[in-house]
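Let's see one such:

===
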Amino acid sequence: MTENKNATTALDKGVYIIHNEDFKTTPELTFNYSSEKNVGEAEEKENAACIAATTTFLHYFVLIILGLASWSLLWCAFGEEWSWNGRWFRPAVVAAIAWIAGEILQMTTTLPPLLAALITGIAARNIGYLDMRHYTAIDGFMRKIYPVLILGKGSLGWNLTYMRQNWKQVASLGVLPWTAEVVTLAVCMNLLLGYPWIWGFLLGSIYASVSCPILMPTVVKLTAGKNLGQNWPQLICTSGGTDTALSVTAFGIIHSFIMYDGDDTVYRYTRAACALFLGTVAGVIWGTLAKFVPHARDAYVTELRVLFVLVGGLCALFITSHFGWGGAGGIAVLACNATAAHHWAKAGWKLNNNPASTAYRIMWSSVEPILFAYTGTFFVIHPSLSRVMLVGFGVLVVCLAVRLITAFLVCPSLSIRERLFVCCAWVPKSIVEAVLCPIAITAFISTGRHDKVQMEYAETLMRIIVQAILITTPIGFLLTKHLGPILLREKHKKCQNESEI
């Protein structure tokens, strides 16, 4: 009887086994079991599909009800500005449509929803419905919040022990392809469009940022439970985070040079030299404080920990931006959250799987469609756009080739297949690009500077970056998703049959 039970269990798991000679079974038992199993599986699948459909419907139904209730509350509280044709209703409705379009795109094609949100913003601007140039105050405010959520969310998953043990690989993959692309882009823009060098490097600092967050769910799914000989989620996350840190820091420093040109020259160079160091020190100190406060036995330890790093990051971004120390704030956020997550992991919170990470993911998913939709409203389609887009496409091909060749060469410890996978993951450009590309435009508008030449530089910068997002994001996502299972082969251990004989 015990042997029959074991055999049934083996059949249920779909495992081929070799039975002993004295094992007996009957055809009727096997047939009846298989029939009942098939019927049971069909019913379970049907019930699971019904539950999933009901859950999804109720999820979106609740969100719609909450959205309508919030709008009615704002209309009653603030009057006509939130009516159908009110000033603030338009940005809200564009954000809502961007979110809906993104959800539909992801459900039907699996592509990242940010593409639909960006296209929604472009459409809203070019039909004359919304132009965020008329909302520079709110747009500028939001673009100081986005980096806190993006950088904070990513760095909460950093494994500092892994980074210390593999620092050469992480640093080379995060720094060298980024540097090669920045220099290549600055040269191309100077030669092809006559861009000043400082504007070329400003564009390069944004353009060269890789967008690993849109690939991380795919990478985690591809590598889960497999012996691949490499911690791929950590390698992609930490190397991509290093790349992002360089982009945010370089952009902040160069942007400060352009916008604060009245400051003393010595002070400007001192500020640029110290931004990275001071941001790192401030972030590590704040993240270390998160180890001690709040106390681990505090009744509200979860809420207070999230607020501690979130408010600290917001203060870092807003204070450094106010005093012209751009770049230091972003580094402080990365250092703070990575340090805090390291200490929390020692106390029992798993990296990237704890209440703080969940809170950041929820906040980011809430603002992501807003970010891309509002960025899209800066993109104006006009007859002279074709020349800029043609040059931009050529620049994209050259820069991407340089970036991927460099990424391929700086990973000598990986196999050819693994290096090709790294190249696939290093294609997308989206999140940092969308956050930073309109900042120069809004800065000129909000400060009242009417330098037509520099404004044209800022407009061209924005157009080229939006083009890169629309091209590289789907390509990189699809390459990683479909080639990943082919390029990442599991390293099977040899069977130990000889020792068992």
